[in-house]
Amino acid sequence: MKEMGAIRGVSVAHSAATVDEIESAGGESVRATVSDLLARDGVEEAFAIRTCNRSEAFVVTDSTTDGTAALDAFAPDVRGAAVRRFDHEESLEHLMRVASGLESLVLGEDQIIGQVREAYEESRAAGGIGPVLEDAVTKALHVGERARTETSINEGVVSLGSAAVRLAAEEIDLTGGTAVVVGAGEMGTLAARSLDDTAVGEVVVANRTVPNAAFVAEEIDTESVAVPLRDLPAVVPEADLVVTATGSPEAVLDTRHFDGADRVVCIDIAQPRDVDPAAGELSGVSLYDIDDLEDVTRETREQREAEARHVESIIDEELDRILQAYKRKRADDAISAMYAGADRVRAREVDRAVTKLEAQGDLTDDQRETVESMADALVGQLLAAPTRSLRDAAGEDDWETIRTALQLFDPGFNEPPGGPGGSENGLASADTPSNAPFDAIPDSPSEEVDD
Predict the structure, then answer these.
(1) Which residue of 181, 244, 339, 420 sits 20 to 30 Å from the alpha carbon of 372, by its own alpha carbon?
(2) CB 169 within 8 A of CB 344
(3) Cβ–Cβ < 8 Å for 244, 270
(4) Per the annotation, where are the binding residues?
(5) Is 52 a catalytic residue?
């Protein structure tokens, strides 16, 4: 039986990293990152998530060394202080915190749970989701749902889009003004909805695909219009506020787009950047990015501290549940392997005993049943103590004992490479005669059996 692997993770996020560092971590997409991780030695499962303020990856390996090595290349150009690493338990807890919004720039934001779900689907499509990460990510999504239904963690400012609008309102008077939203994805939609709650006079939604922009424009009550990206040089200089949130790998706005602008606040909440930083040096242009939103969200964080503590108690409860389930699974794997190995020996020895008894005379069904019952009782009594020990080992996080048991009682121990009859584990090695009695089986992989 194959041993259940453990998770290791790595994170480059807004709490310690800059926008550029987040952008540089991982591959170009979730699927690319997962595919790269799966190609590394020892990696059995992989999950990755990329948002505007985090880039993270998690792998499942049998070896801690393999897990660490696989993740070493995830953020090679990022400062060590900006990279967080997690062991198995820390990974489980972190995924729950991410899905519940506790790790978000805007505490309790709603869209993160959808982003985790999308990352899960992308990772699955890349072949990265197996039994361990299946349990981990679905548990995180469950916690995220509980956080939003059982607490008020998501009340108030819950998105970067709404935080951007609040920041703009502190900088300029939006009354009767024009706001341009660049991008019709989730973040752009949230920004447009937030603008709908202000006194702005017009919202221009610009997007590569105009029908998508029109869809966003139709969702709000404020006077709005949808335009293609090629119209940006005409609409940006006339705007009071520009919020950019596209998924473009390259900047969509540079200094030329602001020619003729009098006074415009531009807030870039895209990852990677939508706006060339040089635009912020122009007279009349105030450029902000994700890093600047921390001040705007501080008030929200203070208001939600009590709710965050409630969410943390949910996480503690759910983390304990999944860890206990994980421990039981590890112990059950070893116990199942132990009983499977013993049962094969029991069946073999019963057959031999019955064959010998039948050679000495007729054997009744009752006598055969007596032999079977005696063998079953011996196995049960001999394995009762090891079973208790393995369950105790799981409860005490003694994985070395469980690992040893799995190695000793691998169900394939009497089917080595090349055919049946022995095993690398030595419990029934190729040197063991096919008619050897039970007590001829070596006590350890290194013990020789005399013919």
Answers:
(1) 420
(2) no
(3) yes
(4) 51-54, 104, 109-111, 115, 183-188
(5) yes
Domain boundaries, the chain: 6-156, 160-293, 322-411
Catalytic-role residue among 22, 46, 52, 60: 52
Give the predicted TM-score (pTM) of the model.
0.66
Q: Indicate the range of 1-15, 252-266, 353-367, 417-431 predicted with least confidence.
A: 417-431
pLDDT digits over 237-259, tens only?
999 999 999 989 999 999 999 99
Low-confidence winner among 132-146, 223-237, 291-305, 314-328 (lowest mean pLDDT): 291-305
Neighbour tally for 282: CB within 10 Å: 15
Q: Which two tokens stand for residue 103?
A: 């790790």
Q: Which residues are annotated as a binding site for NADP(+)?
A: 183-188
**Contact indicator for 269, 246 with CB cutoff of 8 Å:** no
The CA distance from 169 to 41, in Å, is 51
CA–CA distance, 49 with 30 (Å, rounded to integer): 6
- DSSP assignments along 281-327, one per residue: GSTTEEEE-GGGGHHHHHHHHHHTHHHHHHHHHHHHHHHHHHHHHHH
CA separation, residue 119 to residues 33, 57, 96 (Å): 11, 10, 14
* CA geometry: angle 255, 256, 260, nearest 5 deg: 100
Residue 366, exposed/middle/buried by CB under 10 A (0-12, 13-18, 19+)?
A: exposed
Tokens of 297: 């969200």
CATH of domain 6-156: 3.30.460.30
Considering the domain delimited by 160-293, tell me its CATH architecture.
3-Layer(aba) Sandwich (3.40)
pLDDT digits (tens, 9 = 90+) for 57-74: 999 998 889 999 999 999
With beta carbons less than 8 A apart as the criterion, state whether 191 and 219 touch. Answer: no
Q: Tokens 């690992």 label which residue?
A: 403
Evaluate if residue 394 carries a pLDDT over 80. no
Cβ count within 10 A of residue 118: 15
